[in-house]
Amino acid sequence: MVTSNTPLYAAADVHGHRSEFQEALRDAGLVDRTGRWSGGDARLWLLGDYVDRGPDGIGVIEDVRRLADEAAAAGGRVEALLGNHEVQLLAAHRFGSAPVAGWDEPEGFRGGWARFGGCEEDLRRLAPEHIDWILGLPAAALVDGHLLVHSDTARYLEFGSTVAEVNTAVATALSSPDPAAWLEFSRRMSSRGAFRDAEAAHAGDPVSTVLGTLGGDVLVHGHSTLTKHFGVAPGDVREALRYAGGRVVAIDGGVHEGGRILLTRLG
C-alpha cells in the first residue's frame, strides 16, 4: 500500500459550528488567524455532517469549499465525505412535506429532517452550488491504510464491495427521484454502532468484514458522538477514541452536545 509522508488529519460532524471549526483548524496549524489555509502540503479529510444542529451549516460548507481551493494552491488537500445530515437536508429540500410510503412521519422528509436537528436557516440558504457540492461527495475513502467513512456501520457494504463501487452506488442513490429509495438510503447512512462489541479481531466480525472488503488497516468514523454514544463527559473530550482492539477510531467529539470538534492527526 502506497502511503504519503505529508501530514494527514481528519475531523467530523462540525454541524454548523463554524467558529469552533475555525478554532480547531488554528490549533492544528492548518489555518492562520484570518482563517486562510496555512497547512502547506498537509491533507485534511472531513467525514460528513457539516449542516444541522448548529448555527451556520451553509457557512461551514462554504468554508470547506474555500479551504479546498486554498490548500490545493499550496500543495495540500482538503477533502470531504458525505454524512447522513447532508442526505436528510437534500431530502427535505427535494421532497418537502409530502408523505413517504413506509414511514410514519406526518411531515415527510421535511418533518423528519427538522426532528433530527434540521436548521431552518440551512434549508433557506441552500443554493444550487451547495447542492451540487453535496451531490459530488463520496461516501468512503481509503487513505494511507485508513478507511474513512462517516458512520460506524457495516451497511456501506450494501452499496458495493470496493470503495469505488460504494461511491458510485451512493452517487446513483443521490440522483434517484423515488422517495422510498431515499428513505432506505437515509436509513443506511444513519445506521450506527456496528463495531462496539468487536474487540479482538476474528474472522467474520464486523470490523474485519468491512476492512477486509473495502481495504485498510484502521476504520475512522464520525456520526456517533463520544459524549452520547461512548459515555465520555463533554468536559473530558480531549482526543479521538480508539476501540475494537485498536482497529476503529471514533472522532465525533459531540460539539453540539457540549463537547468539541476533534481535529485528529492520523499520520
Provide a descriptive summary of the structure in words.
The protein is built from ten helices and nine strands. Helix 3 (about 85-95) runs antiparallel to helix 4 (about 110-115). The chain has about 270 residues and is α/β, with parallel strands linked by helices. The chain has a five-stranded mixed sheet.
Brief write-up:
The protein has 267 residues and is an alpha/beta fold.
The fraction of residues assigned to DSSP E strands is: 5-15%
State the separation between the terminal residues, measured CA to CA. Answer: 14 Å
Overall mean pLDDT stands at 96
What is the succession of H and E elements? EHEHEHHHHEEHHHEHEEE
Oligomer: single chain
Widest beta sheet: strand line-up: 4-5-6-8-7
DSSP summary: helix tally: 10
The largest β sheet comes out as: 5 strands, mixed
- Sum up the overall morphology in one term: globular
Taking all Cα atoms into account, the compactness measure Rg is 18 Å
Strand segment tally = 9
> Low-confidence runs (pLDDT<50, min 5 residues)?
none
- The percent of residues in helical segments reads 25-40%
What class would the helix/strand composition place it in?
A: alpha/beta
Write the layout of secondary structure elements.
Layout: E1 8-11, H1 18-27, E2 43-46, H2 57-73, E3 77-80, H3 84-95, H4 108-115, H5 120-125, H6 128-135, E4 140-143, E5 146-149, H7 163-174, H8 179-190, H9 206-214, E6 218-221, H10 226-229, E7 241-243, E8 248-250, E9 264-265
Parallel strand pairs: 1-2, 2-3, 5-6, 6-8
Antiparallel strand pairs: 1-9, 4-5, 7-8
